[in-house]
Write a structure and sequence with these properties.
alpha+beta, Jelly Rolls, seven-stranded antiparallel beta sheet, globular
Length: 232
């Protein structure tokens, strides 16, 4: 659990730097009770701001993870990857060895803290044809039960989504589907244990994961890109 604590500490430090607050990992779950306005929260959740960097030690541990290596070899036929955040197309900034974090306050009072349903294949506004270009690792740091976890639609990754179903806007780093689009899939929210993650296909429907618990959810999105494919 040392890596989990490192990630939580790094996220907390980044939040304090952006907000000028003195949050700590022991009270971060009560983030929604702190004096943070919706405006400040939205500024913090801009993709320019909501990222943390990894040192070589963490990157080496990730690359040596046997489960991840097995998954990548099975999906890509190789395990060579880069962890990338940002987009040179949308934000003129691409960060290697960095990942994005997100804080979602309880839905009771904060209804707009989460992105709508989307796929990650075109993350950063880059249109990718290869479905083996990347994978996402959703990592909860605070909030693990189905009240907090990622909402996703099993088997939806086999669908070729029409471009007409995507909402034309730049609010999110990944374009979301139109609110009136009818999805022919059932969504689930897994119950996770501390230290568990969700690794999923870039064409899988997910999102709209409102926090229906009582504490603030904190999570990371690792974007793992296939080094053998040039669609970065």
């Amino acid at each position: 659990m040392k890596i989990l604590k490192f990630l939580l500490n790094s996220t907390n430090q980044r939040l304090n730097k952006i907000l000028g607050k003195k949050l700590n990992i022991d009270n971060l779950k009560n983030y929604h009770k702190h004096d943070v306005s919706d405006l400040d929260h939205n500024i913090m959740m801009n993709p320019h701001s909501r990222y943390i960097r990894f040192d070589k030690n963490i990157i080496n541990k990730i690359k040596k993870n046997k489960e991840l290596t097995k998954i990548l070899n099975g999906f890509w036929d190789n395990n060579k990857f880069e962890i990338i955040w940002g987009s040179s197309t949308l934000y003129n900034k691409t960060l290697k060895n960095a990942t994005g974090f997100r804080v979602a306050r309880p839905k009771k009072k904060h209804t707009k803290d989460v992105a709508g349903v989307h796929i990650d294949l075109h993350f950063g506004g880059e249109i990718r044809k290869s479905k083996k270009a990347m994978l996402t690792v959703w990592t909860p740091l605070i909030g693990f039960s189905d009240k907090y976890s990622l909402r996703l639609a099993p088997k939806s990754h086999n669908t070729n989504w029409p471009s007409s179903s995507i909402s034309k806007q730049k609010k999110y780093i990944t374009p979301v589907f139109k609110k009136n689009y009818k999805f022919p899939f059932k969504f689930i929210r897994p119950n996770l244990k501390k230290g568990e993650v969700i690794i999923f296909h870039p064409n899988l429907l997910h999102g709209g994961s409102s926090n229906i618990g009582n504490v603030s959810r904190v999570s990371l999105d690792f974007r793992i890109f296939n080094s053998e494919i040039s669609e970065l």
